[in-house]
Design a protein that fits this description.
This protein is an alpha/beta fold. The chain folds into six domains: 2-217, Rossmann fold (3-Layer(aba) Sandwich), CATH 3.40.50; 219-390 and 555-625, P-loop containing nucleotide triphosphate hydrolases (Rossmann fold), CATH 3.40.50.300; 399-472, Winged helix-like DNA-binding domain superfamily/Winged helix DNA-binding domain (Arc Repressor Mutant, subunit A, Orthogonal Bundle), CATH 1.10.10.10; 483-537, SH3 type barrels (Roll); 632-804, no CATH class; 826-966, no CATH class. It is 47% helix and 16% strand. The chain has 38 helices and 31 strands. Helix 17 crosses helix 25 (607-622), helix 18 (399-413) crosses helix 21 (467-473) and helix 37 runs antiparallel to helix 38 (946-963). The chain is globular. The N and C termini lie far apart (62 Å).
Length: 967
Amino acid sequence: MSEQRGMDAFSHLGSEVRAALSERGFSTPTEPQRRAIPALADGRNGLVLAPTGTGKTETAMLPVLDSIAREGAPEGFAALYITPLRALNRDMRERLDWWGETLDIDVDVRHGDTTDYQRRQQATDPPDVLVTTPETLQAMLTGERLRDGLADVEHVVVDEVHELASAKRGAQLSVGLERLVELAGDVQRIGLSATVGDPGEVAAFLTGGRGCEIIDVDVTSNVEFSVREPEVTRRDERVSNELMTSPEMASHVRAIREIVDERDSVLIFVNTRQTAEALGSRFKELDANIGVHHGSLSKDARIEVEDQFKAGELDGLLCTSSMELGIDVGRIDHVVQYSSPREVARLLQRVGRAGHRRDEVSYGTVITGNPDDTLEALAIARRASEGDVEPTQIHHGSLDTVANQIVGLVMDFGETSARHAYQTVTRAYPFQDLDEATFREVAMELHSNRVVYVDEDDDTISKSGGTWQYYYANLSMIPDEETYGVYDMAGGHQVGTLDEKFVVNFAEPGATFVQGGEMWRITNIDEEEEEVNVSPIEDPAGEVPSWTGQEIPVPYDVAQEVGEMRDVAADQFAASAPEQGETEDATGDALRAGVAREFTTRYPTDEYTAGQALEQIDRHVAMDAPVPSDDRVVVEQAGGTIVVNAALGHEANETLGRLLSSLLGQRTGSSVGLDVGPYRIELEVPTRVSADDVAALLRETDPEHVEPLLELSLKQSETLKFTLAQVAAKFGALKRYRSSNSNSSGDGWQGRSGVGLSRLLGALEDTPVYDEAIREVFHTDLDVERASDVLARIQAGDVDVDIVGERTAIGSGGRSSGSELLTPENADASVVQAIRDRIQDDRVKLFCVHCQDWAHETKVRRVADQPECPHCGSTRIAALSPWADDAVTAVRADDKDDEQEDRTERVFRNASIVQSHGKKAVIALSARGVGPRNAARVINRHRENEADFYRDILEREREYARTKAFW
């Protein structure tokens, strides 16, 4: 019967294509092909949702190639294949080339690396099928000859449409397709996508709300998941010393290696490049036959490991999301996900890479390492098995995209009416709710920036002197961030790349890091050439790069299920508490085993893994503390640290965290430190702030005021300033320039009148630029709607808020964010010595706050045990960053503004610590991200033990690296 259905699907194609199918060995179509080809061959729009490796490319292209073969190729382009990848992966290119040669259809590729000669050839003699990127389409739409060729387009295939739908480059493409309609009329649109939670929304994005056949291939019936926390063995304890890591981490490495050894080809997905590098270096130490693949490696390095894996020369491949977008590496028989994948869609997409033979199950193992990680992975695996996938976060109404596309329309026509431009933009799905008044404000902002000329009298928008330059400098909506090439000075080849933020904040001559699974020491940094020159080293105690890139946010629904799991387990532990006279030991192990066994009936895991995750809940219940759950928030306090235990996911907790820190900061006049995860909000507060104060804010803050209060607090944040600069560049209001002595990302921007980021907010606050920056921060980082709803439910009594006067088992058990990969939990002597040497060689500016005349820069190691001013003899000496001229200026100023007052207060606190603790304070204050409050804690905690003193500093630096975006 299935063969007959296959023949029915292929019968919709012409004889030439059917003959080619036989030659290619396609006897029976895959399920996506069987279900989609009839509708697509009929010329209907279609969205095909299926895992990688199920023949999606042929599903879309066979009907398109058949149409061209039957009807004959036009003079221009017949079809466009748009992919978010800069270059189509080689396997897909070879397959399309084969089909083109067999059917006598010309297939070519055009992207940023296409030569000028090839571009001219494509303009004068267009290929029948052109494979291109969203950004290159933007350039093509403005070329006179290319526009003639585009007028013949009848089919557009958009690959990886789920990736584009949730990004601004996708919003830009959606308008680009409407600009194509202006040339070619309505064309057939075919989208290829991984599984999404809202196929109708993605289909509307693809077609602009036009009719669309949705072919959603069920992946959940053919996937099996297992969540596992490896048990530590004695061998792991021995190996941990060799690997310079904890026994737990050694057990993870062993467990992954066992899976790789038992199978032929295994993909090992990790969530960050940092983790890929750290794990890769561990496998290299053990001579495991496992490669490393991520976006910061050079193209040649990536291609080499792809080919080795496909040829069976590698048993496993460690990779990040770089392997999600359809890169062909041959057959995969198992997928390992290292730590929680954070999202259902991500787990399905990654594990979906395994198998794909007919009726074959795709197997995936999630390796976890702590209770949060395990419970979260269990929730995600269960939801994935039931197809409960997150919705796509489309960028509705992004105004910098509107600005960009207004300029595009002017480039298309030379001059256009504002009304026509508005109608074209709002045909695209992300902009269908854009009102005309806002559109005109955007056009006038472009006019004021001299990007276009707006004539309000005759309602036209036309080119100005800056139009051409702006458009070609902004073909992409991807934020403009520099990358530095990393070059091996000994080998003379490129190792990979580093993000600009890492280079500015962390990289310096002598610093060490891991890349390509090997250790490197920075020799020098060439700012002009944007190169980092390195040499290989054997020392395993180096620092892994903290690449920029946000942590994958855990969705609200997943976090809520974790809260629900806690609640269920807590009830079982509480109901089976020891009888009077009976010891906890007599019942505890058996009780945990029973609860764990019950969990394995509902979740894909084993008793040991479930028991390890539940042990934390058991200890929490034993403290007689309320358990944070899906309908209970628990606020706990120990000293100056307050933890709000709330299972609300990253974005809702980020929203509440920023709200609480802002309100507490306003009330106390002091800064409030903030760290946020999906299950906790951690606040570093002045001692006069209590858990009761935080609980009161949750119970009393008007949910309707969340958004305006957050907007006020964002004005002081680096997040908004940096976003504002990026958005302003897309409006033509700012130009990027390189600064050789830049010490922060904010120094890399300059406005029309030379204003820096600190003054940018005031200059742009009442413009669409500011509105879009706020919208983007809210869209990307926050969830105002959910946070407001939580406050409303607290105030309605549907969510409890309980207070605990101590740190609880759950409250203390935050996610480690992979920090255990960097060094052992108790760093050994070589690591302590490395951090000591680095800080001692750092430079520090000593400043006397008593006479305010003396400021002296020197190395930390040259500072006296009790520094004093040579002018006035005072010991009130602040230890500042070498470039802290603004802080010195603030102290010396007679008439201070609010910002200078804050800086002055911090400098005096700094000097007070140095006066009390001497050189030890100078050392602590010279560490990255350690301020006076943390410096005092580190010193008081480790007065006698120097090794622990430096270990604590290292942990503070790690914490700062993870959380600096929130400060």
